[in-house]
Structure formats: structure tokens, C-alpha cells
Amino acid sequence: MGEVLKVAMPKGRIYKKASQLFREAGIFIPDDVDDSRRLVIPIPEANMEFIMAKPVDVPTYVEYGVADIGIVGKDVLLEENRDVYELLDLGIARCRMSVIALPDWKPGIHLRVATKYPNVATRYFREQGEQVEVIKLNGSIELAPLIGLADRIVDMVETGQTLKDNGLVERESIFGITSRLIANRVSYRMKNNEIQELCDRLEKVMPGAVKS
Ligand SMILES: Nc1ncnc2c1ncn2[C@@H]1O[C@H](COP(=O)(O)OP(=O)(O)OP(=O)(O)O)[C@@H](O)[C@H]1O
Ligand SMILES: O=P(O)(O)OC[C@H]1O[C@H](OP(=O)(O)OP(=O)(O)O)[C@H](O)[C@@H]1O
Asked: Which residues form the ATP phosphoribosyltransferase catalytic domain (predicted)?
């Protein structure tokens, strides 16, 4: 058996989909892992150890090598800009990053934009040649235009339900988002066999994979 792979797993909605994908790929994960409050979970049956992280911190653990690989949304990768390898587009947790406003939005100068993704938003509006003030929030971003904190928000849209329920409109989709498998640069060389085997297994069951 090869070396134990340390996997940074995002807690929350991605974990549910990622663990399902791992199971479909024939990787044994005991059922009780899903409901556990433990943060470091050895999975000897799979020769892995899961590190249960806040989604936004996954690239940090992987860059520093305390996790060999990790699973993370493309949104977080683009925001965090960490020095990691992106190995696979897993095709799960699909949504999009969009610019959102009230229906009666007006173009203006010095717009205020609220978002959980200040780097992404700043880059986007700079490329558009628009001068904006970016305000970082940590959740319930849709509140900002409703109560007058910002003219626009940059946030994720999946079903569109949150926008509908709050009377907001999607002005522009900036990029599509799915979860990615990332690796630490050194681990990728030192544990190449283990990582490659995992990639091969996942590739066969990822959404969109051609089943043989
Ligand atoms: N509808 C959606 N809204 C937000 N994120 C989604 C959605 N669908 C898929 N995702 C993906 O899930 C990730 C966020 O997961 P989750 O909502 O569990 O965590 P979080 O809200 O960032 O963290 P926390 O709740 O710990 O603050 C995003 O980075 C994105 O890649
Ligand atoms: O298009 P929808 O299917 O409605 O999904 C999009 C919503 O989901 C996310 O919020 P999340 O549930 O992570 O809550 P938070 O950002 O307020 O923490 C995102 O920030 C949107 O608000």
C-alpha cells in the first residue's frame, strides 16, 4: 500500500457531493464520517486522512502542504490565488459568479459593490474600466442592495431562488463554477502514484464522464 493521502475536504455543501463522488469511484468512506464533528478523520480503508476545513481555507492548507490534495470551488481558487496545482474539474457543485442588482439599477460613477469575493470583484470591474468601491461581506450578500449598502453585488447564483425571493436581477454572469481537485506541488511529485490513482478513479465517475 502507498503513502497516506491527506485530503482537505470542504465542510458543507461540497462535502456531500464530493463524498458521494468518492464513493461512486469505489473509495470506501464510512457513513459516520458525514455526521461527525471530528476535524481530522483517518480513513485507513482508503489509505486517506480527511481534514475537514472551512471551504475558503482549503487552498491554504494545500499550499502549505499540511494537506496533499484538496477539493474546492473555482470561486475560492480565483479569490485566494494560492500556489497549488489544479488537477481535475470534478464537475460537482455547479453554479456561477454573477453581477446582481435591483431591477431599477442605473449606471453611475463610483458604484459600491458588496461581495464575499473582493479580489474577484475588483479584477472584474477593473477589466470593465469601471471605478467601484468594493465592500467585503461574509454572507447574506443579497441584503446589501435591498437596504442601500451597495448598488451591485458580486455573488454566486445556482437556482436563482435567492434572487427571485429578494426581487433582484442577474445583470451579467462572470464565470462558471464547479469544484476542483487541487494538489500541493511537492506532494504531487512525492505521492504521484497515489494522487494519479485517485484522479483515474474520479475521472471515470465525474459528471460528464463517458462510462465504458
Ligand atoms: N448555491 C450555491 N451557493 C454558494 N456556493 C455554492 C452553491 N452551489 C455550489 N457552491 C459551492 O460551494 C462552496 C460554498 O460552500 P458552503 O456554502 O458550504 O460554504 P460557505 O458558505 O463558503 O462556508 P461557511 O458556511 O462555512 O461560511 C462555494 O465555494 C461554491 O464553490
Ligand atoms: O441561486 P440559489 O440557488 O438561490 O443559490 C445562491 C445563494 O446561495 C449562496 O448563499 P449561501 O447559501 O452560501 O448563504 P450565505 O452566502 O448567506 O452564507 C449564495 O451566496 C447565494 O445567496
From this structure: 54-203
